[in-house]
Amino acid sequence: MTTVSEESRTQGADTRAKLADVAERAGVSISTVSKVLNGRAGVSVDTRERVTGILHDEQYNRRGGAQPPSLLLELVCHALDSPWMVEVVVGVERVARENGMSLVVTGMKDRRPGEGWIEGVLQRRPTGVIFVITDIPKANQHQLRSHGIPFVIVDPEGDPAQDVPAIGSANWMGGFLATRHLIELGHTRIATLGGPVHFLAATARLSGYRAALAGAGLTEPHGYSPRGEFSHEAGAAAARVLLMRDDPPTALFAASDMQALGAYEAARELGLRVPDDVSVVGYDDLQVAQWAGPPLTTVRQPLTEMAEEATRLVLRLRAEPQLKSTRLELATSLVVRHSTAAPTAGRA
């Protein structure tokens, strides 16, 4: 015959009482609260968000205390096959290995986790979750917090709330350094291939570009700052339009290396040489930048270091849940190679 200790009975009663309190506040049944706690389906998005918010407010702990985490880190990212993301994965994996942990990588079709993702995470009980350039629904944030799973965002897409830990880089300074380099070479017609409008990093790089122009007393002609995806295709399309203008730029600052390589392609199609006819500066300093012809001058964004710092931070948050300093911005720097030169007399 199975016996139940008095302590177990008491813990079970306390848990039911807490579940009942949460259910009453949320206006739902105890079974609905249980589904939310365990990441099960069958609960509407609005109800799930309401319940997880209350669980977070109440700092609810499950029966017998919180379950111990797995020796596992979870990385959630978009465009897993991109050179940019490869450098991030390398950084996360390095710190995970140093700490004797395994890594689960979840690729997303878009920049928002799918409906079923959170259920898998709650079942795996990772030590922490690292998001890369993504938008985390508030309901998912509440669920992770209510289960004691810390998370950090690398290079956040927008401007996250102050209580959301994030690791970024000095994007404004990167845009400023790239543009000032071109100005110092003697360029006065400098265009930029900007990143997506909704990306905070892209907007900061554009602002740095404009600040450098203003500081040198230069104006930005209308249409000199088109914005698009951080992709080769977007860079080629935007550069093609700019270089076919009646007043074409003599230099291009691209908000990503992939856009810069697209600009190389557009220049070749138009019979222009880099840097003789048009100088090009990229952003990121991916490995491919060194292999381009000519090697690409670019702004180094310390992607691997950003990923390493994010991983260390999520481990600290697990050990120190009340940690206050959860924002970090790493420095960017200019790497000068062979894709930039003074403008030729005819084009200047």
Automatic annotation (TrEMBL):
Record CDD domains: HTH_LacI
Keywords, sorted A to Z: DNA-binding, Transcription, Transcription regulation
InterPro entries for the chain: Cro/C1-type_HTH, HTH_LacI, LacI/GalR-like_sensor, Lambda_DNA-bd_dom_sf, Peripla_BP_I
HTH cro/C1-type domain location: 19-47
Domain HTH lacI-type: 17-51
Gene3D superfamilies: 3.40.50.2300, lambda repressor-like DNA-binding domains
UniProt cross-references to Pfam families, sorted A to Z: LacI, Peripla_BP_3
Record-level Gene Ontology MF annotations: DNA binding
The protein, known as: LacI family DNA-binding transcriptional regulator
